[in-house]
Structures are given as C-alpha cells and as structure tokens.
C-alpha cells in the first residue's frame, strides 16, 4: 500500500468536489463555533481550548499539539480563561513538575452550553441513519489516519 506522500494528488472532479464540501463544512463549523463563543464573551480559540479541557485536563504542550499551534499561544489563552474563572492550573498527579490546565465547575458549565448550542452538524447528522453515521465516522477516521474500529 502506498503512503500518502508517494501518491499522485487526485484532481478528478469527484475528489475536488469532496475537498470543497469538506472545506465548506469546516468553515461553517468554525463560523458557528465563533458565534457561540461570542455569546459567552470568548474567542473561538478560547472556546475550543475550553471544550478540549472539558474532556480531560491537559498540559499546555498537549493542548498545543491537539490544536496544532504554538504552546506560547496556549499559555495566553489559558491565562485569559483562568482570569475569567473558567480554567485552573494544577499539578499533574503523575508528574508534579508538569502543570495541567483543567476546567473549573463554571468552565464545565460554559463548555456544555457551547457544545449544546452547536446545531450546524448535529441537525444534519440527525437526519442520517445510525449506519450512515457509522460509515461517515469510519471514512473520516480513515482520512485522518485513525483506525476505523
């Protein structure tokens, strides 16, 4: 099986249309996410960090890796979220030299409210059958290099 880097880019009309559709979905998602964040006086980046932390406390370096940005950017975002009482820094129980960013109770409430207000993808997905959603999930996982299982 050829690796992605050794393949010739696909430029057939179907592939180009799929790429365009993915771009449209991503753009709409970020527009809705930014609008929802604004209702909580947050930037889109702050909302995404808070949403990520609502899943599990993380060190700043790991947040930066997940969001594909510089750790220094994450430090500033965490500082602003912390000043609002939405996030706190705490020692990592596994390595006390490492600080984890973790949501406060208020931060979890805001993250849940943000997640609940994002209807863009949820409403169209609700129209798909369970089998269609499973298939879509598998295809998306393959596209990003994760196991489809």
From TrEMBL:
InterPro entries: HTH_MarR-typ, MarR/SlyA-like, Tscrpt_reg_MarR-type_CS, WH-like_DNA-bd_sf, WH_DNA-bd_sf. SMART domains: HTH_MARR. SUPFAM superfamilies: Winged helix' DNA-binding domain. The keyword Transcription applies. Keywords: DNA-binding, Transcription, Transcription regulation. It comes from the Bacteria. Residues 15-145 form the HTH marR-type domain. It holds the Pfam family MarR. This is MarR family transcriptional regulator. The lineage of its organism: Bacteria, Bacillati, Actinomycetota, Actinomycetes, Kitasatosporales.
